[in-house]
Amino acid sequence: MTNHHGDFIWYELMTPDAEAAARFYASILGWQDRPAEAAAAGAYRIFSAAGTDVGGLYCTAGDPRCAGSRPAWLGYVGVDDVDASATDVQAAGGTILMPPTDIPGVGRFAMIADPQGVPCYVMRGAVDAASTAFAPDTPGHCQWNELTTADQQAALAFYGGRFGWQPGDAVDMGELGDYRFLVQRGITIGAVMNAPPGGPPPMWTFYFGVPDIDRAAAAIVGGGGTVHHGPAEVPGGSRIVVASDPQGAGFGLVAPPPATASKETST
What we know:
The chain is an alpha+beta fold. Helices cover 20% and strands 42% of the residues.
């Protein structure tokens, strides 16, 4: 595959109700879904936006490996060598949650957790094509990757050492400290922040692009989801929502500034 080591290449929803989840995200983001050819029938689906694959859905119902797991979105980071990355993760204080495994026709992957316990996947795809699942300016794609962690400096060191991510500029969040941007190959891909006291546990939140944040927030509530924060403006003028779907998986939405959004909608 042509993605670089350290690029986000895929996003995956783990949910106990595939049909309900597919309907919900279609109503919010306009996604289409289809069964994955390389997976068992009905077990894995592919989400696409305007004909481009942007993520997947794995139904955890009936899978004993998922007993006790909560619905969640997980990110895949592309690496040059999955086995070497897994060894490196362990040496740096992380955990291997699922050992390196091959999926015929798809690639080799492993599920890891950073030293603060936040999971993600590392993967080397079998197809020599670049993933555009992360596309900062494209509606329906992930546009921002945000890590909430118990130790910001340790997280920056861990991910920087494993994937080459560099700390970028920061926004002062008062008692919570800095909201520190993450830079991969000159592109700002997200940020790392300290978890607020009494808030959710450390986790990744992935923000998917929408043209109209108010309309999307109303659709979340109308579809049985919950809006936890927003719509709210962030530095730069974009507007966000932090939410969870009806099964409890957390996610974010981001829209361009209102003037830009109005122009995009009219065109």
